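Task: fold both queries, return tokens.
Query 1:
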Amino acid sequence: MRIKRIMLLYLFVVAAVTAANPTVSLSNLPKEEVISQYIINLSNDIYGSIERPVDSMLSGSRGELRLSLFLSPWGELKDAKVSESSGSKELDNICLKAVWVYDRYQPFPEELGDEDRWIDVPIIFEKTKPWFPESGAKSVKEDMPQPEFFVGVGIDDAVDIAMENDMASRIAEEEISLSRLKIREARRGLYPAASLNIMETTGKTTAYTQDFTDKEYKMKFEYPLYYGWRLKYAVEQAISNMKASTYNYDKVQQDLRMEVEIAFYSYLATKANVKLQEALLKDVKGVFEGAKKRFDLELSTKAEFLQVESQMKQISYQVLSSENDMEIAKLVLTQAMNVKDIEGLVDVDTDLESLDMLMPVDIDISLEDCVELAYRNRPDLKIKEHMLDFNDYERKIALSKDQFKVDLTGTYGKSGGAYEFEPLNMDKDWYVGLKVSKPLGGNTLAASYTKEETSQKHGQSSRTESVSKSLELGILDNLQSFSEKKSASIALKKAMQELDAAKDAIFKEVKESYLNYKKGLIQAKTNFNKIRHKEEELKIAKARAGLNEIPSSELLKAHMELTDEKSYYIEALGSLYQSLARLNKASGYTLFLDNDTFRIANARPMFKAKP
């Protein structure tokens, strides 16, 4: 996706988000920034699924529109519509159709809350233009001729297919659904529990042989008046678990994304190297044939011809070795994507000229900025933070069990009983009670007060009313409370330690990725300069060979040395983009890297590359 479209989109979204609160600066509101990035990500996903409209369709429209998506907090698409038309009904329909390519999008960031909501997503088009390196790519050689087209390497397709086939992502989605059920379960505990009872008893008395029947229809209820806030803590704990599950889903997808990116760039580099070695073999066949003719005419020594023959065998071996490396890289990529084969999926036309024009990308960002982005956006750190909250609520729940527990219970309905020769009359039947309990060390003191009124039963001539009071001391029936509090305290300390360890690990990962990227940048530039040096040496060798000043083996050596340097450059360039992928992942996928030929998949706009 081009820089122009991204920047226009970013400005559009920021303006839309800040319009609701224009008196507050965006720089002081990270919440708006997070929401803006989320909307941009939705726009990128939809834009990538849109069938490319013809220029006539774009020329007959404004070139931009706004879609409204009705999404659940976990990204389920429930409805969609065009809220602001582009002026072309056909273009609107194409975009709306692209929305339904996915039935689930990215889950809400926590700043958007836990309720279903409409999200306005802008889509901005621009006409197709020949590709030239954007300001995001700093050329190693400024006067290098630019290509008139670019080759799509299909990395976004590879990542999307991997996510569709990844079982870990599906399990993570199920965990989010489970965590939401846990929230519903915890919230249910805040409200009265009720049940409907129907009972009928028939039998005989011992004194008479007369049959009797008792019937009752009642509704029972139990309401937790006070549990020392433990029920509220249970809800908050369940919400923390849901947030941790949501970020775990993000973590699983980011881990998978990086795995695919690394495998993809490795495959791309090995495929380019195969073409490079095949081109070398084709170029030197004429040299070998000339050397053989000279040997046959006894114009060169046998040692010279054997040297040339050995070099040709070495080149053939390099072709075979590079093909084997490509097959291994392809296997790694297919395993990362969870598919059997990728034939026809990845379109990589890596001829030498277009490869030389792929320049290293020098992004304008410091190590401190990368670390700050990682601390703000890494899902594994968010998981640890929410698990810390989870264990803190567990500790609060354990402590709250030492407080009073007050329950209101009761029943209401109708009941009655009579002998078979008497009419059965149903009358009111109710019961209400208050239960209070309080842990005392390892014991439990419980008191209750109940009042009930029952209807007339068989053998009775009037209704029955009663009031009951009780006091009970459970001896050593609450010893588990000590272990529960101790266990909760230990779990909280472990969560704190894991959070600190996660921060240290993230800092180490970011720093290693950043330094490896900088080292790879220098290496790629160095290899590129060596290529130019070897090209000049090959020109000289060809001229001297034409004058018979050097043997054919020296000319072959010059060809091989140039190819070796180009192979090193390919390897360095592939490693550089692998380092960029690792740095982007280490920073929470927040870097803005846009190079249409060799890019980081689905990067978010954050930092522009150096012009």
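Query 1 returned. Query 2:
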Amino acid sequence: MNTKRFGMLGISGLFFLCVVSYSLQGCKKESPPAGAEKSVISDREVQKGHKELGLSLYEKGKNLEAIEEFKKTIADNTADIEVYYNLASAYYDEGMIHDAIDMYKKVIEIDPNHTEAHYNLGLILIDERLCEEGIHELKKVLEIDPKHEDATYSLGDAYYDCKKIDDAIEIWKTLLKDNPEDSILHYNLGVAYRDKGQLNPAIAELEKALKADPKDRDAKKLLKQLTIKKKGVKSSGQVKNLKKTEKK
């Protein structure tokens, strides 16, 4: 009770002094010291916590700083699946492949149905020539989400890269049912049939590729090579990756 009264009297007294002072020179509000505003902003950033700061840094492309903040979040046991997923992505962006693999696996451990973690992990494993593991991850994506088109395209590329040409052909033929005018699919089939030594279906697919895209120089070149194969011209076409160009 006394404390409250003292506080009120103190405020009243200050008000009185201000009124008296104002009559002489006016009440002046002191300006904050230089750098005070910057200090407040910095404190607010810190108050966000390591997770929010890490996410903010990652969005700005400051991967190494973001990684340190995410690791602090893990150290103080406040990390969630978003932290692990973005940490994996930051590791990948910095070329820290094995760390990225470990973090994507951690995401999947927390949420076995996390499609993008399975997808990104699959692409990385294929790039690392870990074919069986990479294909397993891409197939897992399609098991969770059969309509995940990127995973289907990437699975075809993965089969081809891993020398499973028959499997790649089946994937590309399946995709053509919904995309009959896809020139890249026809071209890839032409290359695959060429690799199997099946000249006629290879030429047929390359002709379809050119019908869909008359400007496809790769298809023109390979078709010309195959049509004069009897003259001993060596073909040099390579499949074109469709969706496996970057991680999500």
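Both queries returned. Flag for query 2: Residues 1-30, 36-41 have pLDDT under 50 and may be disordered.
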